[in-house]
Each structure stands twice: as C-alpha cells, then as structure tokens.
Amino acid sequence: MQKILIVEDDKSIAELERDYLEADGFEVVIEHDGEKGLHLANSKNFDLIILDVMLPNRDGFSILRELRQTLDTPILMISARKEDFDKIRGLGLGADDYMTKPFSPSEMVARVKAHINRHSKLTGTTTASLQSKTISIRGLEVNNEYKSLKINGNNIVLTSKEFDILYLLISNPNKVYSKQEIFETIWDDSFGDISTITVHIRKIREKIEADPSNPQYIETLWGIGYRFNL
C-alpha cells in the first residue's frame, strides 16, 4: 500500500485530505508540527509528501529546502497564499506541485496519483539498456538507473523534475528543445505549468554550472528554447 505523509496544522483540512486519500486506497500519516513533520519525512518511508506552507515551529519552505538536499520523494505543497511569488518559490525549491486553498479534494487525489505514478516510472524497472546508461560529458556523469548526478566525482542532488529535464537535454546534446517540447515530454499529466520550465532550468544551472550567469552546459537560445552543449 502506498504511503502518504500529510504535514498540515489545520486538523480539519488534514483529516479531509486523509479521508479522500484513504478512500482511494492510500495509507496516510498526519503530522501537525513542522519540525516533527521534517523528522518523519526524513525517514524516507513515504511515497509522497503533502506539505503545508504555514506550520508551527518550522515553515514549509524551510522544510522543503532541507528535504531536497537528500530526498527525491514527490512533494505537493499546499498554501492559503495565492501570490505567484510563493508558487514560484515553492517550485524553485523543488516542490513537484503547488495547490492553493481552497481546493478540490478530488483534484488533490488526482495530482497525488499522477506524481506517484510518474516517480514510480522513473525509479522502477523499464528498459534495462536505458536504465543502465551512464552519460559522461565534460565532468558530468548522469546515471538514469539510479537517477544520480556526479560532477567531477561529487554527488549532486536533483529533484525528479530537474533530473528529467537534465537527462532529456544531455541525452540529446546540441538538440534545441522549446519550453513546450520540454513540458510535453516531462509533464505527462495535465497539472504542470509551462512557466516553471524557466525556474527548473535556473535551479539546474545553480547546481551544475561554475557560473550560472554564464552557463557552459545548458544554453538558452532566446525565443527558441534550450540545448545541452557538447
């Protein structure tokens, strides 16, 4: 049974989310405190984490930032704040999705399923030859079997979406991909937002480029798209 962690201080919302998820066959654990939620999430025993932004003792953004240093579990952020800045910040820190209150519990369950299915495809067994492929270009080593990235031998943690984008580009060096092409390839559900492609590219550059403002790996072709330079 797939297991969901809900970190939400509003008990009525947390219980509503739990009821809908359990009705769909998920096992659900609820935590109302931010610090305790972080500790639970770090146990790595969950298939997806639903994380509220406003929490006692530790806010959702700081929890997300810390989790993304070691964890690639899908994370769905929930917030009553509707500002685009908060959404961009959450996605930029590594959230896989972002929903604002009030929201449809049925849509929430649909998003949970979509992200778990996608993560399972990425980490499960597909084509052995594809999974075992390690691509090495100018100090970067990307392994699709373990969803791992090394730069000059040092491990670099990417979110699932960041890895997908990097692997798409590095697997097809010098090929130009538009934002729309990246979106349609990586986001195989209807819940993504094409505007976040720019955010994800920026975060990838911050992790792989010596000077993100002068990228040597992922090049922007203004008005066209992106490509990975050999």
List the helices and strands and how they pair.
Blueprint: E1 3-7, H1 11-23, E2 27-31, H2 34-41, E3 48-52, H3 60-67, E4 75-79, H4 84-92, E5 97-100, H5 105-123, H6 128-131, E6 134-137, E7 140-143, E8 148-151, E9 154-156, H7 160-171, H8 179-186, H9 196-208, E10 218-221, E11 225-228
Parallel strand pairs: 1-2, 1-3, 3-4, 4-5
Antiparallel strand pairs: 6-7, 7-8, 8-9, 10-11
Helix pairs in contact: 1-5, 2-3, 7-9
Protein model, in words:
By secondary structure, this protein is α/β, with parallel strands linked by helices. It folds into 2 domains: about 5-125, Rossmann fold; about 130-230, Winged helix-like DNA-binding domain superfamily/Winged helix DNA-binding domain (Arc Repressor Mutant, subunit A, Orthogonal Bundle), CATH 1.10.10.10. Helix content is about 40%, strand content about 20%. It contains 9 helices and 11 strands. The strands form 3 sheets. The chain has a 5-stranded parallel β-sheet with strand order 2-1-3-4-5, sandwiched between helices. Helix 1 (about 10-25) links the parallel strand 1 (about 5) and strand 2.
